[in-house]
Design a protein that fits this description.
Belongs to the ferredoxin--NADP reductase type 1 family. This is ferredoxin--NADP(+) reductase. InterPro entries: FAD/NAD-bd_sf (IPR036188), FAD/NAD-binding_dom (IPR023753), Ferredox_Rdtase (IPR055275), Ferredox_Rdtase_adrenod (IPR021163). It comes from Agromyces agglutinans. The chain is α/β, with parallel strands linked by helices and 459 residues long. It has two domains: 197 residues, NAD(P)-binding Rossmann-like Domain (Rossmann fold); 215 residues, FAD/NAD(P)-binding domain (3-Layer(bba) Sandwich), CATH 3.50.50. It is built from 16 helices and 18 strands. β16 and β17 form a beta hairpin. The protein binds flavin-adenine dinucleotide. The site of flavin-adenine dinucleotide has 36 residues, from α1, α2 and α7.
């Protein structure tokens, strides 16, 4: 079939969606392209805006590169439009030749532990959304615990621990929203305990993020000598892997440090497998119970049967993110992704039960491959997906109404208060002006209605 134009919808304006649009526009192809990028938030950049911590301005700086792509003006943005509510798959089939889902992940993966539903037990993703000013989460957060546990040994666990332990004044140079700063400033926290069931040489932290903890003002890093009795496998990991080598070096330095003067402490407990959150008698978390583990000689760990308890009044589980299903689109409930082959979405044939390609539907980024990996990985993801979009042109949809105006008319007819690139510029400038007044780069606007009104030039 001869095609001379691809009308493409991309759902999700995080890095994966923006990279996919950019790669397609720059690719070698024999047809024109017109791309509409939809996001249910009134601001683009996904987890770079609403996941990466406010005190990581270097990473947030990736927004500059993503912004350059959008500012070229050859991709239309429709913010405040949710796929599944404001737009359906049938709508897309009527107006586009294909769709790429780049909807990422924003929820916490489950952790099945007795007591996990007690008051005072939280998901890291919810806390991250709160401190990063996500418009769809409550504006307040109950930061009333003196002792807190964080379960997990990845960078999100470090982000959560750092934000909990850091003095709020030291966040005031960042874009942290005012409601968040106020609540963090009143936090009574003294001790944050991070639990990982494996040893120091098996963590998923990256060295830079770990080292940063040691630079927190008035926070002692506490590590325990019993965790550094390395076996052969651990010693081999230190000798053979640069990342592990640096992590070990940082931890060994902390072992030598004088502690005791700081008003807050951040404890790293290794070989510590949480087994239960203990009720304080009122339905709230009163302690975390954990089992001491030991190396099993094969690179893993096994329980020792020794049970310990740490008094805490709040627990944050940072055990991973999980994607959300989208109406009409296949979903793998086990892995929280859209089933796909290199970005081509797969569906089950009702008769044979076999997986087959769902023509015109693609996935990229975290919803394609699962919520692991850095922003840069979403670029290679997008390349793979776009290659198939281009090669599949014989199987694209045949939309009955592909004009660029028709989607605008549809949104208008549904009364959807969508925002566009100019609107984003207005909101961006507004936030920067709020920041400049306080000597900060930006102060985020949090309520969705305010974001939309500012974007649409209504205030
Ligand atoms: C706490 C945290 C800290 C991180 N820190 C770093 C870091 O320091 N460095 C680094 O490189 N990486 C970091 N990452 C990883 C990085 O954020 C991800 O690799 C990247 O954001 C994934 O991109 P994505 O576009 O697939 O998903 P996302 O960034 O999640 O973007 C998905 C977009 O889709 C939109 N969307 C979802 N559902 C719908 C719908 N139904 N309709 C319309 N739009 C929808 C969302 O609003 C969002 O804008 C961090 C991640 C987290 C969670």
């Amino acid at each position: 079939m001869t095609r001379n134009k691809l009308r493409l919808a991309i759902i999700g304006a995080g890095p994966a969606g923006i990279y996919a649009a950019d790669i397609l526009l720059k690719s070698e192809r024999h047809f024109d392209v017109s791309i509409d990028l939809f996001d249910h938030l009134p601001a683009p950049y996904g987890l770079v805006r609403y996941g990466v911590a406010p005190d990581h301005p270097r990473i947030k700086g990736i927004i500059t590169a993503l912004r350059e792509v959008l500012d070229r003006g050859d991709i239309r943005i429709f913010g405040n439009v949710r796929f599944g509510e404001d737009l359906t798959l049938d709508d897309l089939k009527r107006h586009y030749n294909a769709v790429i889902f780049a909807t990422g992940a924003v929820k916490d993966a489950d952790l099945h532990l007795p007591g996990i539903d007690l008051a005072g037990s939280y998901g890291a993703a919810d806390f991250v959304s709160w401190f990063d000013g996500h418009p769809d989460v409550p504006r307040t957060w109950p930061l009333d615990a003196k002792e807190v546990a964080v379960i997990g040994n990845g960078n999100v666990a470090l982000d959560v621990s750092r934000i909990l332990a850091k003095h709020a004044e030291d966040l005031m140079v960042t874009e942290v929203p005012p409601n968040v700063a106020e609540i963090l400033a009143a936090s009574p926290v003294t001790d944050v305990h991070v639990f990982g069931r494996r040893g120091p040489t098996s963590v998923k932290f990256t060295p830079l993020e770990l080292r940063e903890l040691g630079e927190l003002r008035d926070v002692d890093m506490i590590v325990y000598d019993e965790d550094f009795d390395y076996d052969d496998a651990a010693r081999a990991a230190v000798a053979g892997n640069k990342q592990v080598f640096v992590i070990d070096k940082v931890l060994q330095q902390w072992r030598q440090r004088e502690v005791g003067q700081a008003s807050r402490r951040l404890h790293l407990h290794f070989y510590a497998k949480p087994i239960e959150l203990v009720d304080d008698g009122t339905g709230r978390v009163g302690a975390i119970r954990w089992e001491r583990t030991e190396p099993d000689g094969e690179g893993g760990v096994r329980g020792t049967g020794e049970i310990r308890e740490q008094s805490v009044q709040a627990v944050y589980r940072a055990v991973g993110y999980f994607g959300s299903p989208l109406p009409g689109i296949p979903f793998d409930k086990k892995f929280g992704v859209i089933p796909n082959h290199e970005g081509q979405v797969l569906t089950r044939d009702k008769q044979t039960g076999e997986a087959r390609q769902m023509y015109g539907v693609y996935a990229t980024g975290w919803i394609k491959r699962g919520p692991v990996g850095l922003i840069g990985h979403t670029k290679s993801d997008a390349m793979e997906t776009i290659k198939h979009v281009i090669n599949d042109l014989g199987n694209w949809w045949n939309p009955e109404s592909p004009s660029e105006e028709s989607i605008v008319e549809l949104l208008e007819s549904r009364g959807i208060r969508w925002t566009d690139l100019d609107g984003w510029h207005r909101l961006d400038q507004h936030e920067q002006a709020l920041g400049a007044a306080e000597g900060r780069v930006r102060v985020k606007v949090v309520p969705r209605d305010d974001m939309v009104q500012i974007s649409r030039g209504e205030v």
